[in-house]
Amino acid sequence: MNRKIIHIDLDAFYCAVEELHDPTLRGKAFAVGGKANRGVIVSCSYAARQLGIHSAMPSSRAVRLCPHLIIVSRRHGDYSTKSRQVMEILRSFTPLVEQISIDEAFLDISSLKESGETYARILQKKISDELGLPSSFGVASNKLVAKIATNVGKASQGKNDYPKAIQAVPPGAEAAFLAPLPAEALWGVGPKTAARLEDLSIFTIGDVAKQSNEDLRGHFGKVGPDLVRRARGIDTRKVQTSRVAKSVSKEVTFSRDTTDENKLKETMRWQSKSISKRLKKSNLTGATIKIKIRWSDFTTISRQSTLPQPTNNPDPIFNTAIQLLNKYWKPRRPIRLLGLGISGLQSPPRQLTLWEIPKYDNQSNLQAAVNELRKRYGDQSIRKARDLDF
Ligand SMILES: [Mg+2]
């Protein structure tokens, strides 16, 4: 079965973020980087690239090359916030997202219905509409070709503005797509290897693809056959989702030790909701509910119970937590800290696709409708009557 892999690369990410803060930078030759003596250019606008400025260039040299170059210093916090927001948009389509740098990621959307190109367009528009950031995409049956496709797409666009490219390589066309590109475009071929390939009159990826495994093994050892395989557009690496949290938990230390049952219950209700929200955001469910109680003398107990079915809804989490509390808490024994957590996390077995209406049983049907309302109109749009303050 052909996989559908998308590679996304935000266009001149740092510059694009700076432009959001200062729209007067739009279209100008500017760069983000250190202004001081030994500063280095981190990212530069497409107008600056036209003048020969590139990232990793010492700022002093950049200014000598282009005296009117505007150098903006970095706003780190902001970049990572924006990056996180982009990744959240990607993860709202599939949990199979592998972030490879602050502005690059792979998505495996094989289980989704529409073509990779369609999703790339939707994502590009969403990232632009919601975050104001330009992005480029490569779509192919594997990571290697998708990433190269992004670069090819970017290079084929006009040079004065953000490329906002979408380049798709249909399954079966991988080798033909790669063939005319310089060997250096291949993953694993640095300048040194490229020079050695040139000595062998191997210039393009197509030239590499024509080599026999044995020939290249003779010249490059065991990486030789790897190069041949990649040059033919073959790459079986999976999209590696970033380390998934093993548990989600919330702890509350009371300002004063408490024996108030209502207060304990309300705390657990809040914890359940907050945990549920976190799980839903990462499209995860969990099965083992654990509570932690620290008594006033600082001794601590943890007790857990496993649900028959994994969940990410607040009610089953809350109900199980209350059962555990009732079982292990003797009323009037003061509690200093109350923790609630869920582990045994997993992705739900079936991903919802954009245009599919999932079949729900009644209870989750209700919950799904509630989630939808909250997503559209905010958390407070629909609440249980018992949560209302009178
Ligand atoms: Mg980028």
Which CATH class of the domain at 247-349 applies here?
A: Alpha Beta
Q: What would the average pLDDT be, to the nearest integer? A: 88
SS summary, helix count: 14
* Unreliable stretches: 350-362
Largest pleated sheet: 5 strands, mixed
CATH homologous superfamily placement of the domain at 247-349: DNA polymerase, Y-family, little finger domain
Q: How does the helix and strand content classify structurally?
A: alpha+beta
Query: Could you state the order of secondary-structure elements as H and E?
Result: EHEEHHEHEEHEHEHHHHHEHEEHEH
Strand order of the largest sheet: 5-6-1-7-8
Tell me the strand percentage band. Answer: 15-25%
Task: Tell the overall outline.
Answer: globular
Which CATH architecture of the domain at 247-349?
Answer: 2-Layer Sandwich
Small ligands present? magnesium ion
Helix content: 25-40%
Q: How many extended strands?
A: 12
Radius of gyration: 27 Å
- Head-to-tail CA distance between termini: 58 Å
How would you describe this structure to a colleague?
The protein is globular and about 85 Å long. The model is unreliable at 350-362 (pLDDT under 50). Among the domains are: 13-76, MutS, DNA mismatch repair protein, domain I (3-Layer(aba) Sandwich); 176-231, DNA polymerase, domain 1 (Orthogonal Bundle); 247-349, DNA polymerase, Y-family, little finger domain (Dna Ligase, domain 1, 2-Layer Sandwich), CATH 3.30.1490. By secondary structure, the chain is an alpha+beta fold. It is 40% helix and 20% strand. It has a five-stranded mixed β-sheet with strand order 5-6-1-7-8. A four-stranded antiparallel β-sheet has the order 9-12-10-11, covered by helices on one side. A three-stranded mixed β-sheet has the order 3-2-4. β7 (135-140), α6 and β8 (166-168) form a beta-alpha-beta unit. It has 14 helices and twelve strands. Bound molecules: magnesium ion. Magnesium ion (MG) binds at residues 9-10, 13, 103.
